[in-house]
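Readers of this paper often ask what the protein records in our data store actually look like. Such a record has a labelled line for the sequence and another for the backbone structure tokens. Nothing more is needed to write down the fold, since each code stands for a local backbone conformation. The remainder of this section carries one protein's record, kept here as part of the documentation.
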Amino acid sequence: MNIERALVDDAGKRQRRQRRLAVWLTLRAAFGQTVLAGLIFAVLAFGLWFAFAGNGEQFALRIVAALALVFVAGQLLSWLWQPPSEIAGVTLSREESPGLFDELDRLCRHYRLSAVDRVMIGSDINATVVQLPELGLWGRLQTTLVVGLPLLHSLSPEQLRAILAHELSHLALQRRPLAAWAAQLRAWWHRVLMAMEEDETVVGWLATRMLAWHAYDYLLDSVELAHLEEYEADGAAAEIVGAECLGEALIEVAMKERYLREEYWDAVMSQFEYPVQDGPILPFREMGVGVALGFRRSEQAGRMGELLQAAPGLELHPCLNDRLAAIRVAPHSTVAVGPSAADRYLGETAGELACRLDRAWCMALAPCCR
């Protein structure tokens, strides 16, 4: 009983801390953007006044100084104007995967959510829900679910359902209309800070030095908020699919992500140096077999302890051990049996999607395979 009460108290503390962080970070982002917008207006106004307020003396010098101020204002505006990047992936239609869309519809009804606007298949072993304004920085928020093809090959249908429940929990718990726009504001300020840091001009160098303390502190608080949101989404998903199923999915993703990173992709890239066949290299087409057979033959399955001992860093997800402890699931090895989620939900469509991902991968990372 004492243990149960302690766990409930910890959950309550996390929720209170999460709300405070979300409000505090949103206020800081709004204040920063307001100050930056005001500074742009002030620099432009001062430049115009400085150029034309005199009685004609040193007019040329004034114009040069005004142009310098306009340049500074342009640099500031380039920082502020930071629309989100386009989502990478291949759009999946309901006709191509009716089973997956039916599962999403059931989860949306459970959470009382509107259906997601778009489902895309990505190239990472990950799933994420992204909300972006239709017009770049404003407009109706469009919800996109990105599910990685490697993730579909790595999980069973039940485990994939647990991951989808986790992602939709973010929408239900933290992305309601007002909270969703607050998240947009925080993400926008992140992009502004990054643009300042990447600016190699004198203006960028000065701004980066002046705001270094703020940027680092904002990053740490944002990572903490992301961790708290992950714990909350895990708890909500566990209520739907069961803590054991969610725990197995988290373990499976962590282990196979490491296998793909340390063995599969290394083997793929080594083919450029030591080719074993003629023709293009198609890693996504072969990934289903690579995950199903290669993972079992590798030594990755016996290295779960290393994942549990990984020290937390600045990643947006808490470490595996902490996530399992939060949903009260003991670490254990899993053995996936039966068809994968890709077999269940994609069927022959998986080959077509893999072909498009392989084409994009070759164009972006491996020009020699064109």
